[in-house]
Protein backbone atom coordinates (compact mmCIF):
# COMPACT_ATOMS: atom_id res chain seq x y z
CA UNK A 1 0.00 0.00 0.00
CA UNK A 2 1.37 3.42 -0.95
CA UNK A 3 2.29 5.92 1.74
CA UNK A 4 0.51 9.05 0.54
CA UNK A 5 1.85 11.24 3.32
CA UNK A 6 5.46 10.38 2.45
CA UNK A 7 4.80 11.12 -1.22
CA UNK A 8 3.30 14.48 -0.25
CA UNK A 9 6.13 15.33 2.16
CA UNK A 10 8.70 14.75 -0.59
CA UNK A 11 6.89 16.92 -3.14
CA UNK A 12 7.87 20.52 -3.72
CA UNK A 13 4.85 22.01 -1.99
CA UNK A 14 4.84 19.33 0.69
CA UNK A 15 8.44 19.94 1.74
CA UNK A 16 7.69 23.59 2.47
CA UNK A 17 4.59 22.79 4.50
CA UNK A 18 6.26 19.99 6.46
CA UNK A 19 9.17 22.25 7.37
CA UNK A 20 6.96 25.20 8.31
CA UNK A 21 4.65 23.16 10.54
CA UNK A 22 7.29 20.85 11.99
CA UNK A 23 5.53 17.73 10.71
CA UNK A 24 7.23 14.32 10.35
CA UNK A 25 9.67 14.45 7.46
CA UNK A 26 10.29 10.93 6.07
CA UNK A 27 13.75 10.76 4.47
CA UNK A 28 14.45 8.71 1.39
CA UNK A 29 16.11 5.47 2.46
CA UNK A 30 18.48 3.98 -0.14
CA UNK A 31 18.28 0.19 -0.18
CA UNK A 32 20.78 -2.36 -1.36
CA UNK A 33 20.75 -3.67 -4.91
CA UNK A 34 22.87 -6.52 -6.22
CA UNK A 35 26.18 -5.12 -7.36
CA UNK A 36 26.17 -2.16 -4.95
CA UNK A 37 29.25 -1.50 -2.83
CA UNK A 38 28.68 -2.67 0.75
CA UNK A 39 30.18 0.55 2.08
CA UNK A 40 29.04 3.25 -0.36
CA UNK A 41 31.20 6.13 0.86
CA UNK A 42 34.13 7.28 3.01
CA UNK A 43 34.31 6.20 6.66
CA UNK A 44 36.05 8.11 9.44
CA UNK A 45 37.46 6.05 12.31
CA UNK A 46 38.30 7.48 15.71
CA UNK A 47 39.97 8.00 18.01
CA UNK A 48 43.31 7.67 16.27
CA UNK A 49 44.80 6.07 19.38
CA UNK A 50 41.87 3.71 20.04
CA UNK A 51 42.64 0.06 20.86
CA UNK A 52 41.34 -1.12 17.49
CA UNK A 53 42.08 1.99 15.41
CA UNK A 54 44.66 0.48 13.06
CA UNK A 55 42.63 -2.66 12.48
CA UNK A 56 39.46 -0.72 11.80
CA UNK A 57 41.17 1.61 9.34
CA UNK A 58 42.56 -1.40 7.49
CA UNK A 59 39.26 -3.26 7.61
CA UNK A 60 37.09 -0.37 6.43
CA UNK A 61 39.52 1.44 4.17
CA UNK A 62 38.90 4.54 6.28
CA UNK A 63 40.28 7.90 5.16
CA UNK A 64 39.71 11.60 5.71
CA UNK A 65 37.23 13.38 3.45
CA UNK A 66 34.98 16.43 3.37
CA UNK A 67 31.83 14.32 3.73
CA UNK A 68 31.47 10.91 5.32
CA UNK A 69 29.08 8.03 4.83
CA UNK A 70 30.09 6.52 8.16
CA UNK A 71 31.53 7.54 11.51
CA UNK A 72 32.99 4.65 13.54
CA UNK A 73 34.23 5.31 17.06
CA UNK A 74 36.10 2.76 19.18
CA UNK A 75 35.01 3.40 22.77
CA UNK A 76 36.34 0.11 24.13
CA UNK A 77 39.22 1.97 25.71
CA UNK A 78 37.02 4.27 27.81
CA UNK A 79 37.46 3.23 31.43
CA UNK A 80 35.58 5.91 33.40
CA UNK A 81 32.72 8.41 33.02
CA UNK A 82 35.27 11.19 32.58
CA UNK A 83 36.57 9.38 29.51
CA UNK A 84 33.23 9.90 27.77
CA UNK A 85 34.55 13.34 26.84
CA UNK A 86 36.21 11.52 23.93
CA UNK A 87 32.77 10.96 22.37
CA UNK A 88 32.11 14.68 22.26
CA UNK A 89 35.60 15.46 21.00
CA UNK A 90 35.20 13.07 18.05
CA UNK A 91 31.57 13.51 17.02
CA UNK A 92 30.97 17.22 17.65
CA UNK A 93 33.27 18.54 14.90
CA UNK A 94 32.00 16.07 12.26
CA UNK A 95 28.32 15.75 13.21
CA UNK A 96 27.32 17.84 10.18
CA UNK A 97 29.72 16.06 7.86
CA UNK A 98 27.57 12.96 7.34
CA UNK A 99 25.92 12.43 3.97
CA UNK A 100 22.16 11.71 3.91
CA UNK A 101 21.42 8.16 5.12
CA UNK A 102 24.77 8.11 6.87
CA UNK A 103 25.90 5.59 9.44
CA UNK A 104 27.16 6.00 13.02
CA UNK A 105 28.68 3.04 14.87
CA UNK A 106 30.14 3.05 18.37
CA UNK A 107 32.16 0.07 19.59
CA UNK A 108 32.00 -0.76 23.27
CA UNK A 109 32.43 -3.60 25.75
CA UNK A 110 29.67 -5.72 27.30
CA UNK A 111 29.13 -4.05 30.73
CA UNK A 112 28.18 -7.37 32.35
CA UNK A 113 31.74 -8.60 31.79
CA UNK A 114 33.26 -5.69 33.69
CA UNK A 115 33.96 -5.76 37.43
CA UNK A 116 34.95 -2.10 37.77
CA UNK A 117 31.74 -0.08 38.40
CA UNK A 118 33.21 3.10 36.88
CA UNK A 119 34.17 1.32 33.69
CA UNK A 120 30.80 -0.44 33.51
CA UNK A 121 29.04 2.90 33.94
CA UNK A 122 31.02 4.44 31.09
CA UNK A 123 30.34 1.49 28.81
CA UNK A 124 26.60 1.50 29.59
CA UNK A 125 26.53 5.23 28.83
CA UNK A 126 27.32 4.40 25.21
CA UNK A 127 23.84 2.89 24.86
CA UNK A 128 22.08 6.16 25.66
CA UNK A 129 24.51 8.08 23.47
CA UNK A 130 23.95 6.02 20.31
CA UNK A 131 20.17 5.89 20.72
CA UNK A 132 20.11 9.68 21.05
CA UNK A 133 22.31 10.15 18.01
CA UNK A 134 19.90 8.00 16.00
CA UNK A 135 17.10 10.38 16.90
CA UNK A 136 19.12 13.58 16.41
CA UNK A 137 21.06 13.30 13.19
CA UNK A 138 18.07 12.70 10.90
CA UNK A 139 18.06 12.47 7.08
CA UNK A 140 17.94 8.68 7.27
CA UNK A 141 21.04 8.37 9.45
CA UNK A 142 21.23 5.25 11.60
CA UNK A 143 23.22 4.79 14.83
CA UNK A 144 24.20 1.53 16.50
CA UNK A 145 26.21 0.29 19.46
CA UNK A 146 28.33 -2.81 18.84
CA UNK A 147 29.50 -4.44 22.06
CA UNK A 148 32.62 -6.48 21.39
CA UNK A 149 33.86 -9.30 23.58
CA UNK A 150 37.39 -8.41 24.72
CA UNK A 151 38.73 -11.64 23.21
CA UNK A 152 37.20 -11.02 19.76
CA UNK A 153 39.67 -9.79 17.17
CA UNK A 154 38.89 -6.94 14.80
CA UNK A 155 38.40 -9.29 11.84
CA UNK A 156 35.47 -10.84 13.70
CA UNK A 157 33.66 -7.51 13.29
CA UNK A 158 33.71 -7.52 9.48
CA UNK A 159 30.28 -9.02 8.82
CA UNK A 160 28.57 -6.82 11.40
CA UNK A 161 30.29 -3.58 10.39
CA UNK A 162 29.67 -4.19 6.70
CA UNK A 163 25.98 -4.81 7.35
CA UNK A 164 25.52 -1.80 9.61
CA UNK A 165 27.45 0.51 7.27
CA UNK A 166 25.64 -0.70 4.16
CA UNK A 167 22.25 0.23 2.73
CA UNK A 168 21.10 -3.26 3.75
CA UNK A 169 20.49 -1.84 7.25
CA UNK A 170 18.33 1.07 6.07
CA UNK A 171 15.58 0.49 8.68
CA UNK A 172 17.78 -0.72 11.55
CA UNK A 173 18.69 2.02 14.02
CA UNK A 174 19.18 2.54 17.73
CA UNK A 175 20.19 -1.09 18.20
CA UNK A 176 22.76 -2.76 20.42
CA UNK A 177 24.53 -5.76 18.89
CA UNK A 178 26.90 -8.08 20.73
CA UNK A 179 29.83 -9.70 18.94
CA UNK A 180 31.23 -12.63 20.88
CA UNK A 181 34.59 -14.35 20.79
CA UNK A 182 34.21 -17.38 18.56
CA UNK A 183 36.43 -20.42 17.90
CA UNK A 184 38.36 -19.86 14.67
CA UNK A 185 37.17 -23.11 13.14
CA UNK A 186 33.63 -21.78 13.03
CA UNK A 187 34.45 -18.44 11.43
CA UNK A 188 34.31 -17.71 7.72
CA UNK A 189 33.35 -15.20 5.08
CA UNK A 190 31.66 -15.02 1.73
CA UNK A 191 28.08 -15.57 0.68
CA UNK A 192 25.67 -18.47 1.15
CA UNK A 193 26.62 -20.41 -1.96
CA UNK A 194 26.19 -24.12 -1.30
CA UNK A 195 24.07 -23.56 1.80
CA UNK A 196 20.56 -24.96 2.28
CA UNK A 197 18.12 -22.53 3.91
CA UNK A 198 14.61 -23.14 5.24
CA UNK A 199 12.15 -20.25 5.45
CA UNK A 200 8.76 -20.94 7.01
CA UNK A 201 5.81 -18.76 6.09
CA UNK A 202 7.51 -18.09 2.76
CA UNK A 203 4.44 -17.70 0.53
CA UNK A 204 4.09 -13.95 0.88
CA UNK A 205 5.17 -10.77 2.62
CA UNK A 206 8.23 -10.87 4.83
CA UNK A 207 8.78 -14.60 4.31
CA UNK A 208 8.84 -14.22 0.53
CA UNK A 209 11.33 -11.37 0.87
CA UNK A 210 13.54 -13.57 3.06
CA UNK A 211 13.51 -16.29 0.42
CA UNK A 212 14.51 -13.80 -2.27
CA UNK A 213 17.38 -12.26 -0.30
CA UNK A 214 18.79 -15.59 0.88
CA UNK A 215 18.63 -16.86 -2.71
CA UNK A 216 20.36 -13.68 -3.89
CA UNK A 217 23.14 -14.50 -1.44
CA UNK A 218 23.54 -17.94 -3.02
CA UNK A 219 21.45 -20.24 -0.82
CA UNK A 220 19.16 -22.97 -2.07
CA UNK A 221 15.91 -22.07 -0.31
CA UNK A 222 13.32 -24.54 0.92
CA UNK A 223 10.15 -22.43 0.98
CA UNK A 224 7.62 -23.78 3.48
CA UNK A 225 4.02 -22.74 4.10
CA UNK A 226 0.60 -24.23 4.78
CA UNK A 227 -1.19 -26.08 1.95
CA UNK A 228 -3.76 -23.29 1.66
CA UNK A 229 -0.97 -20.98 0.45
CA UNK A 230 0.25 -23.52 -2.09
CA UNK A 231 -0.15 -21.40 -5.23
CA UNK A 232 1.65 -18.38 -3.80
CA UNK A 233 4.29 -20.65 -2.30
CA UNK A 234 5.01 -22.27 -5.66
CA UNK A 235 5.43 -18.84 -7.29
CA UNK A 236 7.98 -17.75 -4.70
CA UNK A 237 9.89 -21.04 -4.89
CA UNK A 238 10.03 -20.86 -8.68
CA UNK A 239 11.17 -17.25 -8.57
CA UNK A 240 14.11 -18.03 -6.29
CA UNK A 241 14.85 -21.36 -8.01
CA UNK A 242 14.28 -23.14 -4.72
CA UNK A 243 11.70 -25.70 -3.70
CA UNK A 244 8.22 -25.49 -2.23
CA UNK A 245 7.20 -27.68 0.68
CA UNK A 246 3.61 -27.56 1.95
CA UNK A 247 3.21 -28.38 5.63
CA UNK A 248 1.22 -27.20 8.63
CA UNK A 249 3.89 -27.03 11.32
CA UNK A 250 1.33 -27.28 14.12
CA UNK A 251 0.47 -30.82 13.12
CA UNK A 252 1.33 -33.57 15.59
CA UNK A 253 3.95 -35.17 13.34
CA UNK A 254 4.91 -32.08 11.31
CA UNK A 255 8.40 -31.70 12.76
CA UNK A 256 9.17 -35.34 12.04
CA UNK A 257 7.90 -35.02 8.45
CA UNK A 258 10.03 -31.93 7.91
CA UNK A 259 13.13 -33.60 9.34
CA UNK A 260 12.62 -36.63 7.10
CA UNK A 261 12.13 -34.42 4.05
CA UNK A 262 15.29 -32.41 4.70
CA UNK A 263 17.35 -35.52 5.40
CA UNK A 264 16.19 -37.28 2.23
CA UNK A 265 16.54 -34.25 -0.06
CA UNK A 266 19.59 -32.49 1.36
CA UNK A 267 21.10 -34.41 4.29
CA UNK A 268 21.20 -31.25 6.40
CA UNK A 269 19.82 -27.72 6.82
CA UNK A 270 22.31 -24.87 7.23
CA UNK A 271 19.94 -21.97 7.87
CA UNK A 272 16.58 -22.23 9.64
CA UNK A 273 14.37 -19.12 9.62
CA UNK A 274 11.22 -19.44 11.75
CA UNK A 275 9.13 -16.76 10.06
CA UNK A 276 5.66 -18.35 10.02
CA UNK A 277 3.29 -16.43 12.28
CA UNK A 278 -0.33 -15.42 12.71
CA UNK A 279 -2.39 -12.88 14.64
CA UNK A 280 -5.81 -13.45 16.19
CA UNK A 281 -6.44 -10.16 17.96
CA UNK A 282 -8.95 -9.60 20.76
CA UNK A 283 -8.74 -8.07 24.20
CA UNK A 284 -8.08 -10.75 26.78
CA UNK A 285 -11.60 -10.53 28.23
CA UNK A 286 -13.08 -11.18 24.78
CA UNK A 287 -10.56 -13.74 23.53
CA UNK A 288 -11.72 -17.31 23.12
CA UNK A 289 -9.45 -20.27 23.75
CA UNK A 290 -8.97 -20.99 20.05
CA UNK A 291 -7.49 -17.57 19.35
CA UNK A 292 -5.06 -17.89 22.23
CA UNK A 293 -4.05 -21.45 21.44
CA UNK A 294 -3.58 -21.03 17.68
CA UNK A 295 -1.27 -18.03 18.01
CA UNK A 296 0.93 -19.68 20.64
CA UNK A 297 1.13 -22.91 18.64
CA UNK A 298 2.14 -21.26 15.36
CA UNK A 299 4.36 -18.47 16.66
CA UNK A 300 6.21 -20.13 19.53
CA UNK A 301 5.48 -23.80 20.15
CA UNK A 302 6.08 -24.92 16.55
CA UNK A 303 9.45 -23.13 16.11
CA UNK A 304 10.83 -24.45 19.38
CA UNK A 305 9.63 -28.00 18.72
CA UNK A 306 10.84 -28.05 15.12
CA UNK A 307 14.26 -26.81 16.21
CA UNK A 308 14.48 -29.45 18.93
CA UNK A 309 13.77 -32.20 16.40
CA UNK A 310 16.22 -30.86 13.80
CA UNK A 311 18.95 -30.63 16.42
CA UNK A 312 18.19 -34.07 17.85
CA UNK A 313 18.41 -35.54 14.36
CA UNK A 314 21.79 -33.85 13.77
CA UNK A 315 20.49 -32.00 10.74
CA UNK A 316 21.86 -28.57 11.71
CA UNK A 317 25.66 -28.80 11.31
CA UNK A 318 28.46 -26.71 12.83
CA UNK A 319 28.22 -23.32 11.22
CA UNK A 320 24.44 -23.58 11.22
CA UNK A 321 22.19 -20.58 11.72
CA UNK A 322 18.84 -20.43 13.52
CA UNK A 323 16.82 -17.23 13.23
CA UNK A 324 13.58 -16.55 15.07
CA UNK A 325 11.12 -13.81 14.21
CA UNK A 326 9.97 -11.84 17.24
CA UNK A 327 8.18 -8.49 17.09
CA UNK A 328 8.19 -5.08 18.66
CA UNK A 329 4.94 -6.29 20.26
CA UNK A 330 7.04 -8.80 22.19
CA UNK A 331 9.14 -5.92 23.54
CA UNK A 332 6.54 -3.24 24.23
CA UNK A 333 3.23 -5.16 24.31
CA UNK A 334 0.13 -4.12 22.39
CA UNK A 335 -3.51 -3.74 23.30
CA UNK A 336 -5.58 -6.61 21.98
CA UNK A 337 -2.52 -8.78 21.40
CA UNK A 338 -1.80 -10.56 24.66
CA UNK A 339 -1.52 -13.84 22.75
CA UNK A 340 0.70 -12.42 20.00
CA UNK A 341 2.92 -10.38 22.35
CA UNK A 342 3.37 -13.39 24.64
CA UNK A 343 4.40 -15.58 21.71
CA UNK A 344 6.90 -13.03 20.37
CA UNK A 345 8.37 -12.29 23.79
CA UNK A 346 8.72 -16.05 24.14
CA UNK A 347 10.81 -16.13 20.96
CA UNK A 348 13.15 -13.58 22.53
CA UNK A 349 13.58 -15.67 25.68
CA UNK A 350 14.10 -18.83 23.64
CA UNK A 351 16.82 -17.25 21.50
CA UNK A 352 18.71 -15.87 24.48
CA UNK A 353 18.71 -19.23 26.24
CA UNK A 354 19.42 -21.40 23.20
CA UNK A 355 22.32 -19.32 21.86
CA UNK A 356 24.85 -20.13 24.62
CA UNK A 357 23.69 -23.74 24.70
CA UNK A 358 24.62 -24.18 21.02
CA UNK A 359 27.74 -22.01 20.95
CA UNK A 360 30.12 -24.93 21.39
CA UNK A 361 28.54 -26.61 18.37
CA UNK A 362 29.26 -23.54 16.25
CA UNK A 363 25.54 -22.86 15.71
CA UNK A 364 24.28 -19.31 16.14
CA UNK A 365 20.80 -18.31 17.28
CA UNK A 366 19.40 -14.81 16.78
CA UNK A 367 16.10 -13.05 16.25
CA UNK A 368 14.73 -10.14 14.28
CA UNK A 369 11.96 -8.07 15.84
CA UNK A 370 10.10 -6.15 13.11
CA UNK A 371 8.32 -2.92 13.89
CA UNK A 372 5.85 -1.37 11.45
CA UNK A 373 6.55 -3.11 8.13
CA UNK A 374 4.47 -2.35 5.04
CA UNK A 375 2.66 -5.63 4.32
CA UNK A 376 -0.83 -6.76 3.36
CA UNK A 377 -1.55 -7.14 7.09
CA UNK A 378 -0.62 -3.55 7.99
CA UNK A 379 -2.55 -2.27 4.97
CA UNK A 380 -5.73 -3.58 6.61
CA UNK A 381 -5.20 -1.57 9.81
CA UNK A 382 -7.51 1.37 10.57
CA UNK A 383 -6.04 4.50 8.98
CA UNK A 384 -5.18 6.35 12.21
CA UNK A 385 -3.44 3.34 13.73
CA UNK A 386 -1.59 2.70 10.48
CA UNK A 387 -0.39 6.31 10.27
CA UNK A 388 0.74 6.27 13.91
CA UNK A 389 2.74 3.12 13.25
CA UNK A 390 4.42 4.71 10.27
CA UNK A 391 5.37 7.99 11.96
CA UNK A 392 6.35 6.89 15.49
CA UNK A 393 9.96 6.13 14.68
CA UNK A 394 13.12 8.02 13.79
CA UNK A 395 12.54 7.44 10.06
CA UNK A 396 8.92 8.70 10.14
CA UNK A 397 7.87 5.88 7.80
CA UNK A 398 7.16 2.18 7.69
CA UNK A 399 9.81 -0.33 6.76
CA UNK A 400 9.70 -2.82 3.90
CA UNK A 401 9.78 -6.62 4.02
CA UNK A 402 13.24 -6.54 2.47
CA UNK A 403 14.53 -4.67 5.53
CA UNK A 404 13.74 -7.67 7.72
CA UNK A 405 15.10 -10.05 5.10
CA UNK A 406 18.44 -8.23 4.87
CA UNK A 407 18.87 -8.52 8.64
CA UNK A 408 18.19 -12.25 8.46
CA UNK A 409 20.76 -12.59 5.68
CA UNK A 410 23.34 -10.88 7.90
CA UNK A 411 22.61 -13.36 10.70
CA UNK A 412 22.86 -16.20 8.19
CA UNK A 413 26.17 -15.13 6.66
CA UNK A 414 29.24 -17.33 7.23
CA UNK A 415 31.08 -14.28 8.57
CA UNK A 416 28.51 -13.85 11.36
CA UNK A 417 29.79 -16.82 13.33
CA UNK A 418 30.34 -14.65 16.41
CA UNK A 419 26.96 -12.92 16.24
CA UNK A 420 24.66 -14.94 18.48
CA UNK A 421 22.03 -14.38 21.14
CA UNK A 422 21.03 -11.05 19.60
CA UNK A 423 17.51 -9.66 19.15
CA UNK A 424 17.69 -6.86 16.60
CA UNK A 425 14.68 -4.63 16.05
CA UNK A 426 13.98 -3.71 12.44
CA UNK A 427 11.80 -0.78 13.33
CA UNK A 428 13.44 2.47 12.23
CA UNK A 429 14.15 3.11 15.92
CA UNK A 430 10.54 2.97 17.01
CA UNK A 431 9.49 5.20 19.87
CA UNK A 432 7.78 2.17 21.48
CA UNK A 433 9.65 -0.16 23.79
CA UNK A 434 13.22 -0.07 25.02
Describe this structure in words.
The chain has 434 residues and is α/β, with parallel strands linked by helices. The protein folds into 2 domains: 31-181, NAD(P)-binding Rossmann-like Domain (Rossmann fold, 3-Layer(aba) Sandwich), CATH 3.40.50.720; 188-426, Rossmann fold. The protein contains 15 helices and 12 strands. The protein has helices at residues 4-9, 12-21, 53-60, 85-94, 117-136, 158-165, 205-216, 230-239, 254-265, 289-312, 328-332, 338-358, 376-379, 383-391, 401-412; strands spanning 43-46, 68-74, 98-108, 142-148, 175-179, 196-200, 220-225, 243-246, 271-274, 321-325, 364-370, 423-426. The strands form 2 sheets. Strands 8-7-6-9-10-11-12 form a 7-stranded parallel sheet, with helices on both faces. A 5-stranded parallel sheet has the order 1-2-3-4-5, with helices on both faces. It is globular, with a radius of gyration of 22 Å. The model has no long low-confidence stretch (mean pLDDT 94).
Please name the defining characteristics of this protein.
434 residues, alpha/beta, Rossmann fold, 2 domains, 12 strands, globular
- What is the name of the CATH class of the largest domain? Alpha Beta
Find the CATH superfamily of the largest domain. Answer: NAD(P)-binding Rossmann-like Domain
Assembly type of the chains comes to single chain
The low-confidence parts are none
How far apart the termini lie comes to 28 Å
Name the average pLDDT.
94
By DSSP (H or I, 4+ residues per run), the number of helices equals 15
How would you describe the shape?
A: globular
Please report which band the strand proportion falls in: under 5%, 5-15%, 15-25%, 25-35%, 35-45% or over 45%.
15-25%
Specify the helix fraction band.
25-40%
Structural classification: alpha/beta
Q: What is the chain-wise order of helices and strands?
A: HHEHEHEHEHEEHEHEHEHEHHEHHHE
Biggest sheet architecture? 7 strands, parallel
The main sheet orders its strands as 8-7-6-9-10-11-12
Rg over CA atoms: 22 Å
Total of domains: 2
How many strands in all?
A: 12
CATH architecture of the largest domain: 3-Layer(aba) Sandwich
Q: Predict the CATH topology of the largest domain.
A: Rossmann fold
